């Protein structure tokens, strides 16, 4: 265990439980949890900052969860930068950092009892990555059970993940509040992502197509208010960009992820995914459509 004034690093579930017990008995007794796969950027740090506003005890997990990667995806290549991550967490107020090994988290190998995200887990992200959300829910529920937080913070960057986790918390009566945090972007609009590190300079430029397609969708919403026009504008923008291969564009309800068709009005989320070279990126934006 590595202990500085504001930073405590634990590598096992038992050490985590002990640190949380000790910390919970001081201050307001509240605990806020931020779950990450590391390679931290300002988007992650926004979650940590928000966690400090909500609770005296902040827990940040750093774990590249093998269950949410399918064979052939980037599990091995995913950046692992623990020392730099710890410095960043310390710079925004510290935390109890849980950085376990896969052996500590899954001592008996892959778990036998599993979770399903249901129909929400099969569409959009789940269509391209059919095992992804089950793997996410497995680790999210496990770490929530270990930490027993009052608040768990998730980025709106992963809009479908956020909707599924909110649904799990409701369906399983988990006693915590899910707190969404807005998307942090680079100055030119690219949504921050640990996977942006995979992009070479030309691809980094091409990746701007995603946020610009969202802008095209928002402009169409302002002009026509029609869901179909929003989708068309974003799709046509993306399809016209060199080096970018579209996976999906959809306009959906932010909670149920039901399609937002013409005739429906209110706030929807425009979600999209595309490959830039071999790197798959996602982005989204809230859009108001209808009357
Ligand atoms: P990750 O480590 O990429 O799995 O993300 C960990 C958490 O950080 C998730 O709740 C993400 O939604 C959130 N996150 C990642 N990128 C961003 C971003 N650009 N803005 C806000 N939150 C983010």
Give a topology summary.
Elements: E1 2-3, E2 7-10, H1 13-24, E3 31-36, H2 42-54, E4 57-62, H3 82-91, E5 95-98, H4 102-105, H5 125-128, H6 132-147, E6 151-155, H7 159-171, E7 177-181, H8 201-206, H9 208-224, H10 227-239, E8 244-252, E9 266-276, E10 279-289
Parallel strand pairs: 2-5, 3-4, 3-6, 4-5, 6-7
Antiparallel strand pairs: 1-2, 8-9, 9-10
The protein binds adenosine monophosphate.
As residue ranges, the low-confidence spans are none
**Total strand count, please?**
10
Rg, Å, rounded? 19 Å
Structural class, judged by helices and strands?
A: alpha/beta
Order of helices and strands: EEHEHEHEHHHEHEHHHEEE
The N- and C-terminal alpha carbons lie at a distance of 57 Å
Shape: globular
CATH class of the largest domain: Alpha Beta
Strand order across the biggest sheet? 1-2-5-4-3-6-7
Percentage beta strand: 15-25%
Overall CATH architecture of the largest domain: 3-Layer(aba) Sandwich
Supply the number of structural domains. 2
In this entry the ligands are: adenosine monophosphate
Mean pLDDT over the full residue set: 96
Biggest beta sheet attributes:
7 strands, mixed
Helix content: 25-40%
CATH superfamily of the largest domain: HUPs
Tally of separate helices = 10
Task: Enter the CATH topology name of the largest domain.
Answer: Rossmann fold
């Amino acid at each position: 265990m590595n202990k500085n004034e504001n930073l405590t690093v634990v590598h096992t579930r038992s050490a985590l439980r002990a640190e949380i017990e000790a910390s919970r008995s001081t201050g307001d007794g509240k605990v806020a949890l931020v779950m990450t796969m590391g390679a931290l950027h300002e988007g992650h740090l926004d979650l940590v900052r928000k966690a400090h506003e909500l609770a005296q005890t902040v827990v940040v997990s750093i774990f590249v969860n093998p269950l949410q990667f399918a064979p052939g995806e980037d599990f091995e290549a995913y950046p692992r930068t623990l020392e730099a991550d710890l410095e960043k967490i310390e710079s925004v107020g510290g935390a109890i950092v849980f950085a376990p090994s896969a052996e500590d988290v899954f001592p008996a190998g892959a778990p036998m009892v599993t979770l399903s995200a249901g129909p929400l887990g099969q569409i959009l992200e789940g269509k391209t990555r059919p095992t992804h959300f089950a793997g996410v829910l497995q680790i999210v529920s496990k770490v929530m059970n270990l930490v027993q937080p009052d608040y768990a913070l998730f980025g709106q960057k992963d809009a479908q993940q956020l909707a599924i986790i909110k649904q799990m918390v409701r369906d399983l009566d988990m006693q915590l509040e899910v707190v969404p945090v807005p998307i942090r972007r680079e100055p030119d609009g690219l949504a921050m992502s640990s996977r942006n590190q995979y992009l070479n300079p030309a691809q980094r430029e091409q990746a701007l197509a995603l946020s610009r397609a969202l802008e095209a969708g928002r402009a169409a919403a302002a002009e026509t208010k029609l869901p179909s026009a929003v989708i068309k504008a974003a799709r046509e923008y993306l399809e016209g960009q060199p080096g970018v291969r579209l996976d999906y564009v959809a306009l959906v309800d932010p909670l149920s992820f039901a399609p937002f068709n013409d005739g429906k009005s209110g706030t929807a989320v425009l979600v999209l995914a595309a490959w830039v070279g071999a790197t798959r990126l996602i982005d989204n934006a809230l859009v108001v459509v209808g009357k």
